[in-house]
Amino acid sequence: MPAVSQGFKTDLLGAIPSLRAFAVSLTQNADKADDLVQETLVKAWDKHESFQPGTNLKAWLFTILRNEFYSQMRKRGREVQDSDGIMTARLAVHPAQHGQLDLKDFRGALEQLPEDQREAIILIGASGFSYEEAAEICGCAVGTIKSRVSRARTRLQEILKISGEDEYGPDAISAQVTGTAGH
Amino acid sequence: MKDMTKDILAGAEGRRRNGVGDPLGANSEIGRKLKQYYDELVSDDVPDRFAQLLSQLEQAEPAQKKD
After folding, report:
1. Range of B40's domain?
2. B5 lies in a domain?
3. Domain assignment of residue B48, yes or no
4. Which of A17, A111, A144, B36 has its CA 20 to 30 A from that of A66?
């Protein structure tokens, strides 16, 4: 078995801030997030041979971290949230003045999203992954990621009472109708 | 081929949005907050335990090529 290269170790170190940010986004808890990052690093080290040099290390690591997160949740017997099956409580927050949305309110709103929507909007809107990469990380179709991002965005807008962002009025209305239908 | 399809799709999407751009981009309040939220997390100081962990993993490696 070839030894782990120095470059691989350096790259792992470099990826830690991103891994921690993604882990906090998933777990919503700093301690759990760091445990998750630790598990991810150990796993990545053990299976370093399966990483293909030249491909996206960050995406590879995010995939490991995400798999670890969901397998831990399953072990704990927690049902994985399915955004199609649950209705998110709509917490009332102060209507945001345009451009003055508080980061704390935003964090609270993000916490209310189902995991699958939260991870999708984080991967696309914050971590800088493409839809294709995000789909690979989450093991689903590109279209699924797109629809999760779109639902996440709509829901955040609802929770935060942001209006005027959707340049398509009818789209916004139909999104709200589909969002509430069947519950 | 795949890239071409992507370009066409991206172009169609851009036209559909009428030049408004990325729905999570700089023109979007949600997009800006999302980046602010995430950047704050990324710039958080990394605890020493992770560098220590990697050193431990390295030391645990079966010594090869050591002559």
Report:
1. 14-58
2. no
3. yes
4. B36
Question: Which of A143, A73, A76, A142 lies closest to A114, judged by CA?
Answer: A73
Q: What are phi and psi of B31, to 5 degrees?
A: -60, -40
Q: Which residue has the tokens 């399915």?
A: A82
Per CB-CB distance under 8 Å, the chain A contacts of B62 are: 1, 3
pLDDT for the residue B7: 55
- The beta-carbon neighbor of A13 closest among B20, B24, B54 is B54
Question: What is the rounded average pLDDT of the residues A142-171?
Answer: 80
pTM of the model: 0.75
Residue A62 to residue A68: CA distance in whole angstroms: 10
If DSSP codes are grouped into helix, strand and coil, which group holds residue B24?
A: coil
User: Residue B1: inside a domain, yes or no?
Assistant: no
Residue B21 covered by a domain:
yes
pLDDT at A123: 98
pLDDT at A86: 40
